[in-house]
Design a protein that fits this description.
70 residues; mainly alpha; flat
Length: 70
Amino acid sequence: MMTLFSRSIFICTSLVSQKPPPDQVVSLTWNYDFWRSESRQLQKLTWYRDYRIQSADLLAKALAIVVVWW
């Protein structure tokens, strides 16, 4: 119930308010160019310092815990 209430507030607020200028939003929005440049930076790191690999590992461990204890 609270999720639906929050969602309706977010939708109404976004419909009523003005759209922000693109230069304000560009740093907060995901795009493929950012993904590529970040991938090049992450290639310089060792595999265990890459946050993407750490995230996938954490997700796999959490899933394993759920499967074992279910």
